[in-house]
Amino acid sequence: MLKRWASDQDIKIKSLVMEVLALSYLPTDLNQPAALKQFFVATTYAIDGGEEVTDPADYCGPVQADLDYDTFADRLRTARDHASKAMQASANNDAATAQWHWGQIFGDDFPHSDAKPAAPAVAAPRPVKDTPQG
Questions:
Q1: Of 43, 40, 31, 39, which Cα lies nearest the Cα of 91?
Q2: In sequence order, what are the beta bridge partners of 62?
């Protein structure tokens, strides 16, 4: 999924970049949605902090020297925000909104509607009645 996400971006991101990032930041002890959210949160933090993706074996240095890290960080922030909103929508039992946000990250292969779900209706507060007690 992460390699597919990278291939959908309008910048060149090598598959090995995503593999190294997944190795470093994709938790294996969480369910898939929570792990993906955590991946995007942690990876965004690392890339925004100036971390360069390097060979984990320390043989050849940077994996992709020509990667536009500013644009990459921007794409990661967008994915992070959608993943966080998807998880919050799931916690609120709003599957349609969660699905829409995951679809914004993973594109047409992820089943979703193109229209953003409407905001939930807010009920008006009940009027206060002054009723004698006792």
A1: 31
A2: 54
